[in-house]
Amino acid sequence: MDRLYYDNPSLLEFDATVTAVEERGEQAIVSLDRSAFYPTSGGQNSDTGEIYGIATGSRVRIIDVQEQEETGDVLHLVECPPGWLRPGVPVRGEVDAVRRRDHMQQHTGQHVLSAAFERLFGFSTVSFHMGDDSCTIDLATDEVSPQQLEAAELLSNEVIAEDRPVEIRYATPDEARTMGVRKIPPAVREKLRLIDIGNFDLNACGGTHVRSTGQIGAIFLRKTEKVKQGVRVEFVCGLRAVSVARRDFQTLTEAAAVFSTHLWEVPQQAQKALDEIKSAQKAQNRLLEEVAELQAADLLRSAEERPAGSGQKLVVEFYADRDLGFMRMLAQKLSRLDKVVALLACGGAQPSLVFAQTAGLANDMGALMKATLQKLGTRGGGNRDMAQGGAPDASSALQALHEAASAIG
Predict the structure, then answer these.
(1) 108 and 177 within one domain
(2) Domain end (from 49, 75, 95)
């Protein structure tokens, strides 16, 4: 079949004939004798659009386009009722122009960006992925500095501003090796399709690209992350870059309003707020430490000695509005102030149990907690001197607390 986008990536309408139809309920896989729809390939997502019968004018939507590995045919997944399409029917295809333009901008931008990284720093691109919101390239390097990112972005946008021509050329693999092609795929046909960005990059690629670099609009690098094969760089191009910049600007504007500050001072104000939160948390923890110590001393004064005459005290206490963190803190205070077994529970958003004892006593808090949690059907754990676990609700925690207390001799 003829792939019309090969020599004319800007082609958005074409006439064709249906050669095969495989119906799948309200969908069908359609083959045509020629197609301008680009199939998912080489990191680029497929085109979408519509086809309609030239005789009837009835339209169906193309939702995906794939390449058949065995034959190389382009398969169009369409939404249509059974029997609507059949072999021999003449149709007209219409490619979604907005999606095609976006893909052309992203893919050509990737060529420019990859070439910039290789020219400036020798970082080759090992993979490319085009998503619906952003694109990524994986660079064969262990690290990319902020300065290198800025330099590659600047060079890429200078090439865009120069509006260099983007041309399609063909060459055999042997010819390509003498032409300075940036990357030659290992499995190739007799002829390679080359994308030539005037005096800047020459690379083998079957995707759709703009006619000149000025049509890319702009390249905007977003972030980097370490991946198995190197460093992943996220970027956006063209109108997608404008959309992302607008969203970023709106987000910063809203954040600036929250902090009652200028847009450019948001990072400093956010850091200041985090520092204040950390300081407040430290102060709160100090107060909780004091409360826990006072509470522990008060509980020990009225605690029952069990077993009688053993010098070992038993504290059993339920707190409806405390959390697990305070329970652990209180248990630690109790076990350090006296020879004690502390069985504590709390309600609140996450009902919990904490069992603790002074080191060296004969009980096993881990075993007692395990037995308790088996009855509750929840999870937890610990060691001989301290253990913790969850409870389904506050009433279950309270009941389990009393049952555990009865197990202490």
Answers:
(1) yes
(2) 95
CA distances from 23 to 29, 31, 67, 78, 165 (A): 6, 12, 18, 10, 43
> What local confidence, expressed as pLDDT, does residue 184 receive?
83
Q: Which amino acid is at 158?
A: E
- Its domain, for residue 18, covers 2-95
200 and 336 fall within a common domain: no
Q: Which residue has the higher pLDDT, 42 or 203?
A: 203
pLDDT band at 188 (very low <50, low <70, confident <90, very high): low
End residue of a domain, out of 54, 75, 95: 95
Joined tokens for residue 407:
């197990």
Reported confidence tier of residue 187, pLDDT bands at 50, 70, 90: low
pLDDT digit string (tens) for 202-238? 999 999 999 999 999 999 999 999 999 999 999 999 9
Residue 202: strand pairing partners = 196
Residue 113 lies in a domain: yes
Residue 174 has a pLDDT of 86
Q: For residues 129 and 135, is the Cβ–Cβ distance under 8 A?
A: yes
Q: What is the pLDDT of residues 43-55, one digit of tens each?
A: 899 999 999 988 7
CATH of the domain at 214: 3.30.980.10
Could you tell me if 115 and 70 lie in one domain?
Answer: no
Could you tell me the maximum CA-CA distance found in the chain, to the nearest angstrom? 102
Q: What is the pLDDT of residue 251?
A: 94
Whether 341 shows a pLDDT value over 80: the answer reads yes
**How far apart are the C-alpha atoms of 146 and 47, rounded to whole Å?**
34
What pTM does this model have?
0.74
* Structural domain total, the chain: 3
Question: Under 8 Å CB-to-CB from 345, ≥6 apart: which residues?
Answer: 317, 318, 319, 327, 351, 352, 353, 354, 391, 397, 398, 400, 401
Give the CATH number for residue 356.
3.10.310.40
User: Any idea what the CATH number is for the domain that residue 84 is in?
Assistant: 2.40.30.130
Do 107 and 88 have their domain in common?
no
